[in-house]
Amino acid sequence: MSRASDRAYSQIRRMILRADLVPGEQIREEQLAEVCGVSRTPVRDALRRLEAESLISRNESQRSFVAEWSLEDIAEAFQLRALLEGRAAKRAATRITAEQMRALKDCNCRIEAAIACDTPDIGAFLENNRIFHATIMEAAASVRLTNILTSIVEQPVVLRTALQYDRQNLLRSHNEHQALVAAFERCDGDWAESTMAAHIHRAFHAYADIHQRELTDAPCAAMA
Amino acid sequence: MSRASDRAYSQIRRMILRADLVPGEQIREEQLAEVCGVSRTPVRDALRRLEAESLISRNESQRSFVAEWSLEDIAEAFQLRALLEGRAAKRAATRITAEQMRALKDCNCRIEAAIACDTPDIGAFLENNRIFHATIMEAAASVRLTNILTSIVEQPVVLRTALQYDRQNLLRSHNEHQALVAAFERCDGDWAESTMAAHIHRAFHAYADIHQRELTDAPCAAMA
DNA sequence: TCGTATCTTATTGTATACAATTATGGTTCG
DNA sequence: CGAACCATAATTGTATACAATAAGATACGA
Asked: What are phi and psi of A89, to 5 degrees?
């Protein structure tokens, strides 16, 4: 991660994920080069990678923009994720090692701890949730599936959503993780697949609910 | 397609697909720049894109190689394709326009003609087959699904396989296409999905059979 | 002979200058 | 007043030189 293009990549990526660069905004190579303290060459390199991840898009004349996501786009991404991560869980069920199994359980313990108290530690929840899913991906042992899923999962709008999860959603998520572990322990691929798919679909509706509330609240906020 | 990086991209791509560059072979930016008649800058750009398509891979020290595919990798790619292109067919079933429907039927007619005579026109078969699947993708109207599928489908080893299809496989393929059209006509997404998945799975086994024969024949050829 | 340290060469990474293209604003003409 | 058109500015694309790094070769010592 010491190469200039790597630094540019992760810095630009972080700016998009943190919404410092807002969706629809045009991206100028030179400006980013200044911000990152490198020349345009590594920035161009980074932009190609971010384009492959759909974090930026280009118009017909090669100008770059922070990707905009409609609710439909997001629904589509969640559906794809449910399909593919379900498949990953199925593969994982018959390939997971004892070590990976332990890692999953540890993750869930840490998640349980993070959401136990009155003010849940969302940061810890998110990080352990990430590790949980990454471990399953690793157990699925499919480079291609991993690559595709990575490009689908890490979308700014989705990542920010979890910050607004209420306790009920956090608990449900935890329970679904427990069910996944149970499916793995019984090497039941079909159970794992459907549990994972359901897990992702529920996450989508949690997102949609929050989003809906945002849409509804927005006018009120504007009036206040 | 007039930009130097676009020309480099399609030229290198073609070289890989035609096996002028053999799997596992190291790729040198400067050499490709010479071949394509451009500087290293657009070549580097093209390589990033090809990397995103898994046509080239990089080792830990950033050297590029033509991607190598094990039989397991290929099986995995076909499985993913069956899953995703099945989903695309399902979406297409409820979204396809009259125009697209007509295009599909025309394609199938041309395919029928191409495989009717004693010496099938494999080139025409491949081209119309490509259009057929592309049309369904278009009807599915999902940018993300299209992108992912494109990166999975166009693998050199898979494309070359069809060149060795026997008449029976060509006919089966054609019949499956007809079934897909029928499913679309009835707007039956589930039927379309399972038919497409079966279509892809059959294609895999046709590939595997040919590959198996190659493996078996190879030693004999070496002895002759 | 083997391993290892060091030098040399090959290859990729970055910066910069300039070329090509696209957007923008203003001007003229109908 | 609007539309077509040009001039200019903004932005991206390409070539090239050089820097950094990794691979390969050679020499030396154990």
From this structure: -65, -40
Report pLDDT digits (tens) over A56-109. 999 999 999 999 988 888 899 999 999 999 999 999 999 999 999 999 999 999
Residue in chain A lying closest to B143 (CA) = A73
Q: Do the Cβ atoms of A80 and B152 come within 8 Å?
A: no
CA of A124 to C1' of C9 (A): 49
Tell me the shortest Cα–Cα distance from A126 to chain B, in angstroms.
25
Q: What are phi and psi of B26, to 5 degrees?
A: -75, 145
State pLDDT tens for residues B146-201. Answer: 988 988 887 777 777 777 788 889 999 999 999 999 999 999 999 999 999 999 99
B119 confidence band (pLDDT: 50, 70, 90): confident
Q: How far is A222 from chain B, CA to nearest CA, in Å? A: 34
Nearest to A148 among B87, B142, B148 (CB): B148
Residue written as token pair 């019949």: B175
Measured distance CA(B152)–CA(B133) in Å, rounded: 13
Q: Which nucleotide is nearest to B28 (CA to C1')?
A: C11
pTM: 0.85
CB A180, CB A89: distance < 8 Å: yes
Contact, A8 vs A38, CB < 8 A?
yes
Contacts of B88 in chain A (CB under 8 A): none
Rounded distance, CA A133 to CA A139, Å?
10
